[in-house]
Hints:
The structure holds 2 protein chains of 2 kinds. Chain A is mostly helical. Chain A is built from 2 helices and no strands. Chain A has helices at 3-44, 49-55. The longest helix of chain A is centred in the middle third of the chain and has 42 residues, at 3-44. Chain A starts with a helix and ends in a 7-residue tail after the last helix. Chain B is globular. In chain B, a hairpin with a 7-residue loop joins strand 18 and strand 19. In chain B, helix 2 packs across helix 5. The longest helix of chain B is centred in the N-terminal third of the chain and has 26 residues, at 101-126. Chain B folds into 3 domains: 7-340, Creatine Kinase, Chain A, domain 2 (2-Layer Sandwich); 344-397, no CATH class; 419-450 and 463-488, no CATH class. Chain B has a 7-stranded antiparallel beta sheet with strand order 3-5-6-7-1-9-14. Classes of the chains: A mainly alpha, B alpha+beta. Chain A binds chain B through residues 4-5, 12, 15-16, 33-35, 37-38, 40-41, 44-46, 49-50, 52-53, 55-62, and chain B through 12, 14-16, 21, 25, 55, 87-90, 137-140, 142-145, 147, 209-211, 235, 306, 310, 337, 340-342, 357-358, 361-362, 365, 372-374, 376-378, 380-381, 388-389, 391, 394-395, 398, 400.
Amino acid sequence: MSDREHSQAEGRRKEETEEQTTESVETEADLDALDDLLDEIDEVLEENAEEFVKNYVQKGGQ
Amino acid sequence: MALHKVLGTETEYGIVVRGDPGFNPAVASSLVVNSYPGQRVKVQWSYEEESPGRDARGFGHDTYGLIDPEGAVVNSVLSNGARLYVDHAHPEYSGPETYDPLEAALYDKAGEVVMHRAAVAASESAGRQVSLYKNNSDGKGNSYGAHENYLLSRETPFGDVIRYAMTFMVTRQIFTGAGKVGRENDRPETHFQITQRADFFEEEVGLETTLKRPIINTRDEPHGDPSQYRRLHVIIGDANLSEPQNFLKLGTTALMLAALEDGAIPDSLDLADPVEACWQVSHDLSLGRPLELDGGGTATALELQGRYLEWLSKYVEKELDEPVWHQLIAEWERTLNLLSTDPDKLSDTLDWVAKKRLFEGYMARDELQWTNNKLRALDLQYHDVDPERGLYSRLAKRGSMRRLFTDEEIAEAVSSPPTRTRAYFRGRCVSEFAGSLVAANWDSLVFDIGETHLKRVPMMEPLRGDITLVGEILDEAEDAADLLRRLEG
């Protein structure tokens, strides 16, 4: 690792520490958002996943 | 100074006719292309000798009202300068020549709208739902391409491209991948990988694109003055839905090639085995796998990309002091930093990370294993171009994907050409002189103005035919004959 890479890595670690306080709050919000998203996707998801996957056959192209 | 990097994309879409598992893909693709309701001209494509309607599986199948699929017109030029046609057994959108990577990503996105509109119209005439997917694999060993094209100088020795671009192409996969459940083509087992395409690359260099796919494709078809230009045909990329990701893929590659032409890449960073490294990078979700270097030692894809970023940041400061390139460097730097510290934070930027987050969410909630078909279904559905069904579109609509373009900008790019390349001339001619346009090619248009001979307008210069050169002439021309007179004058 060059000096420059070393200092970049240190910089990153520093940023991480600074971000950590807000991180846990964001994660909770992220999880809620993900749950909402999955609920929304459930409504449009292919009804028969197995059949859909089985029938998705393409001819090879370029 | 390197030649300006005019660039563009070409994407083959996956196709399904619902309720008809035995459908003929060539016929269905022809129907899609012929049904497109937007402004376009159905033309002869001058050099094509393909027979896209020919398919051994086709006989006896429903032809959806197309009586003679062999004779069906399956080529058209759109008012945005793009080409919409059937390639093999897929509908394909080749975007117009664009001036910079931001514009190239915009016109690639416009292609998704074109395909969706075509699929809706095709479904109406077929009486069955035709669905299109902007992806590159069916998960069963069949792949189809999303290619990129970059203008190079003929003076650039192709050996230099092979030498300097190889490692870049292999390692850029960490931010170009669209993600895929499972593996194909006899590559080692994996639950989920970064790219759709990596498993299919079997050669370092070659002419093939449909089998034994090479990392560097040697197709030499410049679509311009062959004494001055090359066109690098890049086949080792995934079809991206994410706008910033597509910008990143196209921009870093264009920049790399410009720097390569200017001799600004100091080291080829040779890998010991680029073909093996290809799938190794794609299968490594930890992003920490050391790749063997040719001169001994190892480096990760992320470390190697860090080297390119370092060199190309300097190159931009010195040679390409324009906002689009600064925007690109910032995006690239952010992406590499997050990939090394917290890749999950890129779930709004990279298709593969967005998919991984989604799949892991489903697995946790529904207690699924990676082998569950539901995940494979989600994987495919991410790429559906129907904005109601496509999971990328659903994510984008709720603000979970970063956007670079507004819906209005994309709609404009569906109907109008870019203004800074010859695509401008082509697109405007489609809009205004459609009745007189009989044949087209990337580097020419052929008009029938009622005289004994057809009139061919050569367009051998990718940057000539832009708005500053022909805008006024096109505004003033009363008809095609008048246009040709003014062009000669």
